[in-house]
């Protein structure tokens, strides 16, 4: 069975926004669902991901590492940042000769005075050491050597990743032709730009979608609902609930972004297109 680790690594609660905009992403719940279905049979984990949320990546690493069956990781495009150590949870790691493997420092953000900035710096350094543990378990390299590679943002070819122990096999190179082809690693942060929504951006977009739905719904119910044959116990939104309850439903509801067509013909897809034009990601 195949397990796809594609696109940005995201938290379960953030996956909806990536799905809405059609951006490829992988959440821990996606991985758990496949592993549960596999029920111990061999898994091929295909990886082409720029990385993403470290905590979500930790959850995926755990799910794969503790899976009862055999897991082979195939790096088909790139395994960068958090995706680089997800690969190492597998029993065997293979890599296409054209793929790339990237490790770098953990990044984050802080707001506040210099104490907050100092604390964030210490937290990030500790995260670097924590992530390096996954690399150490696979490669046997020292913590200092790995932290140095991370500090330089190291882009490794398949040959170099194999030589350093991150990868066990180069796909299609059974005779070791590429073992001596050791191009220098690429160090360029420009390659690490990818679609990643911050928590603040996700909440802002959620509010915009909910507001758009509310605005559209408020203009669609202008008739007298009391003549619609209900019991007169409708809520104050102008919506007729008589078709699915007895008028005494007091259970609170939570507003979620709608993907249904609005009454005026404007679809969620149209609204998403409008947001894409007005917001820089």
Summarize the structure.
The chain is built from nine helices and eight strands.
Structural write-up:
- There is one protein chain.
- The chain has helices at residues 15-21, 28-38, 54-65, 82-86, 114-139, 143-151, 158-163, 199-218, 268-278; strands spanning 2-9, 25-26, 43-52, 71-80, 92-95, 100-103, 154-156, 169-170.
- The chain is α/β, with parallel strands linked by helices.
- The longest helix is centred in the middle third of the chain and has 26 residues, at 114-139.
- The radius of gyration is 24 Å and the shape is globular.
Fill in the keyword field for this structure:
38% helix, 281 residues, disordered C terminus, eight-stranded mixed β-sheet, alpha/beta
List the helices and strands and how they pair.
Blueprint: E1 2-9, H1 15-21, E2 25-26, H2 28-38, E3 43-52, H3 54-65, E4 71-80, H4 82-86, E5 92-95, E6 100-103, H5 114-139, H6 143-151, E7 154-156, H7 158-163, E8 169-170, H8 199-218, H9 268-278
Parallel strand pairs: 1-2, 1-3, 3-4, 4-5, 4-6, 5-8
Antiparallel strand pairs: 6-7
Helix pairs in contact: 2-3, 5-6
């Amino acid at each position: 069975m195949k397990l796809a680790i594609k696109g940005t690594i995201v938290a379960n609660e953030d996956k909806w926004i990536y799905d809405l905009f059609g951006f490829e992403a992988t959440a821990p719940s996606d991985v758990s669902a496949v592993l549960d279905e596999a029920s111990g049979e061999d898994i091929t984990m295909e990886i082409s991901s720029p990385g993403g949320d470290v905590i979500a990546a930790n959850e995926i690493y755990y799910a794969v590492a503790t899976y009862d069956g055999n897991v082979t990781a195939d790096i088909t495009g790139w395994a960068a940042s958090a995706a680089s150590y997800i690969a190492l949870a597998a029993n065997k790691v293979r890599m296409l000769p054209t793929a790339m493997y990237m490790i770098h420092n953990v990044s984050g953000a802080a707001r506040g005075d210099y104490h907050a900035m100092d604390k964030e710096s210490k937290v990030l350094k500790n995260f670097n050491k924590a992530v390096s543990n996954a690399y150490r378990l696979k490669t046997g390299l020292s913590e200092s050597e790995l932290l140095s590679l991370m500090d330089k943002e190291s882009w490794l070819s398949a040959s170099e990743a194999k030589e350093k122990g991150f990868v066990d096999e180069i796909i299609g190179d059974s005779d070791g032709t590429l073992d001596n082809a050791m191009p220098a690693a690429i160090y360029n942060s420009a390659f690490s730009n990818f679609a990643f929504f911050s928590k603040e951006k996700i909440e802002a977009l959620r509010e915009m979608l909910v507001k758009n739905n509310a605005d559209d719904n408020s203009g669609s119910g202008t008739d007298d609902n009391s003549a619609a044959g209900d019991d007169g116990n409708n809520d104050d939104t102008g919506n007729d609930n008589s078709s699915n309850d007895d008028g005494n439903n007091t259970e609170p509801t939570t507003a979620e972004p709608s993907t249904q067509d609005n009454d005026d013909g404007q679809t969620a897809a149209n609204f998403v297109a409008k947001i894409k034009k007005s917001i820089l990601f």
